[in-house]
Amino acid sequence: MKLEVGKLLYQGKAKDVYETDHPDQVMVKFRDDITAGDGQKKDKIGKKGYYNSIISAKFFLLLAEEGVETQYLDLPEPGYMLCKKLEMIPLEVIARNVAAGSLVRRFPFQEGQELDPPLIQMDFKNDEYHDPMLNDDIAKALGIVTQDDLDYIRRVTLKINKILKNFLESKGLMFPDFKIEYGRDKEGNIVLGDEISPDTCRFWDRETCDILDKDLFRKGESGVIEAYRRVAEIILDEDDLEKWSLDPE
Ligand code: UDP
User: Fold this and answer.
1) Protein residue closest via CA to atom 19 of ligand 1
2) C-alpha to C-alpha distance for 128 and 139, rounded to whole angstroms
3) For the segment 91-136, what is each residue's pLDDT rounded down to a tens digit?
4) If 123 and its partner were Cys, which of 92, 169, 190, 223 is the partner (CB 3.0–4.6 Å)?
5) pLDDT confidence tier of residue 2, bands split at 50, 70 and 90
6) How does the average pLDDT of the chain come out, rounded?
7) Among residues of the chain, what percentage have pLDDT more than 90?
8) What is the DSSP secondary-structure string of 35-59?
9) pTM greater than the 0.85 cutoff
């Protein structure tokens, strides 16, 4: 590890969270590990952490410009994101513009069917229970959130969807769906955390219909890292590319 970090606080499936010398900040290391199918399928893909960190940083910066509060503070080097420390809320908040994935497996939607207005779905983030879908009453009864929290999360998620969808469409990408997570800062404010990357979103090339996300890994196809690099290439501008190379050593 090149960067100086403190004690390991938490290890997830694809990221590690370290203490820093500032009590309200953590360093998130984006690892190359990739998992799918409830953790059944596992591998390591070189440079994935690198690309996911710069893609997430780009999206967080874009959202901050539009007034969405995020956990992002800095990317001291690709792979390592300095973040505001949050108490994470165990919800996977999914927004969908086009039917794909589990929605098509579980309900009679056609793959590729447009969803207008977009759908918001919330899953309980819990490995032991395999992340079941929940509703407002269940989330409140679990004591995770209040109705006001849910209303706020829903409103902010729709705003995030609008910002990212417009941005991606302007770059020739379709944005069928994505998953985000929120946490609470020490003042109790709900803040966007985690990551926004090809591990947690679907990106389809509008012209070629190429899949540019983790579905390639889920389906056992080749070219996973090339697709992640392509997303970075599409969304980063010249200023970003001066800071973050597309072809790290
Ligand atoms: N997703 C995620 N983590 C999960 C489950 C889903 O990041 O544990 C993302 C996934 O990449 C997709 C969106 O949430 O962009 C919707 O996923 P879906 O429910 O269709 O499930 P999947 O097809 O991944 O099983």
Assistant:
1) 102
2) 16
3) 999 999 999 999 999 999 999 999 999 999 999 999 999 999 999 9
4) 92
5) low
6) 97
7) 97
8) EETTTTEEEE-TTHHHHHHHHHHHH
9) yes
> Does 249 score more than 90 pLDDT?
no
Select from 96, 125, 200 the residue to mutate for testing ligand 1; criterion: most ligand atoms less than 8 Å from CB. 200
Task: Fill in the DSSP letter of residue 79.
Answer: T
The string of pLDDT tens digits covering residues 202-221 is 999 999 999 999 999 999 99
Mutational pocket test of ligand 1: of 177, 182, 218, the residue with most ligand atoms within 8 Å of the beta carbon: 177
Structural domains in the chain, sorted by start = 8-86+224-243 (3.30.200.20), 88-205 (3.30.470.20)
- Lining residues, ligand 1, CB within 6 Å: 92, 94, 100-103, 131, 177-179, 200-202, 214
Q: What are phi and psi of 178, to 5 degrees?
A: -160, 165
What end-to-end distance do the CA atoms of the chain give, in Å? 15
The count of other CB atoms within 10 Å of the CB of residue 68 is 18
- Residue 135, token pair as written in the block: 């509703």
CA separation, residue 203 to residues 60, 131, 182 (Å): 17, 22, 21
Please list the alpha-helical segments (H only) found in 118-246. Answer: 136-141, 147-170, 215-218, 224-235, 238-243
Q: Which atom of ligand 1 is nearest to the CA of 102?
A: 20
